[in-house]
Amino acid sequence: MSVAAELNKGHVAVVFGGGGAIGSACVRAFAEAGARVVSVDIGEDAAARAIEGLDGSHTALACDVTRPEAVVALARRIGAVDSVIYAAGLNADGYVADIDWAVYRQVMAVNLDGAFHVCAAFSPVLCARATGGSIVLLSSTAGLRGEAGGAIYCAGKFGLIGLTESLAAELGAHGVRVNAVCPGNVDSPMLREVAANIATRTGEDASAIWQEMTHAGAASRLITPEEIAASALYLAGPTSAAITGIALRVDAGAMLSL
């Protein structure tokens, strides 16, 4: 039996960042596994694009994850859920001495503060069900290893690992599992933006940087958003019932070459 076939009937999944490359792949993966998906993004149009053409009854909602009261209101509106996937995120590039503090605050507000807001609002909902549940946070290999020029992004993603482990310890007695997925270089608009930003900062050729990113790691290839979604689906399903508090690296062996 496939992992996708093992979601319990009536499973409700909430995907934050549903309009992004990884978020929309998660929306599709959970919907194809039989879940009823709530796709959430800062704009309802972006959230809605992720559920277009999918079989089943799905919902698109707008929410600003940087506002804790908005996330609490969303949790009340949705009601009972089985899994929450946090795939919302922004990137930033630059040396610490040159930080634009407005950019720093914006990235941290979404990547780390938003995850805290979502976990705080939905933890009581999951615990109240008394039948278990799952939270999956999208971190990164940048949350496992620092990079020159990547301090803002790395700090937020490192923070998600700490949140994952701490919340898993808090919610374990309630049968709620919390795990993180740490993608390597994912073939996405965000990664192309990162390559362009690095080129601007260093003066290197953007296409050369892209090729280096493409061939990083033992497998010498990029990760697809669908592969990350499959990992999130696995961690949210009953096959991984004994797994909580981990950071699952999905990087085609990128960290093996360090």
Number of domains: 1
* Average pLDDT, all residues: 91
Number of helices: 8
> Which segments are poorly predicted (pLDDT under 50) over 5 or more consecutive residues?
1-5
Based on the coordinates given, report the CATH architecture. 3-Layer(aba) Sandwich
How much helix is in the residues? 40-55%
How would you name the CATH homologous superfamily? NAD(P)-binding Rossmann-like Domain
Main CATH class: Alpha Beta
Alpha-beta content class: alpha/beta
Biggest sheet: strand arrangement? 3-2-1-4-5-6-7
Question: First CA to last CA: what distance?
Answer: 36 Å
Give the radius of gyration.
18 Å
Q: In one word, what is the shape?
A: globular
Count the E strands: 7
- Helix-strand topology string: EHEHEHEHEHEHHHE
Strand content: 5-15%
- Report the sheet with the most strands, covering strand number, pairing sense and barrel closure: 7 strands, parallel
CATH topology: Rossmann fold
Write the layout of secondary structure elements.
Blueprint: E1 12-16, H1 21-32, E2 36-41, H2 44-49, E3 59-62, H3 68-78, E4 83-86, H4 101-129, E5 133-138, H5 151-171, E6 176-183, H6 189-202, H7 206-214, H8 225-236, E7 247-250
Parallel strand pairs: 1-2, 1-4, 2-3, 4-5, 5-6, 6-7
Helix pairs in contact: 1-8, 3-4, 4-5, 6-7
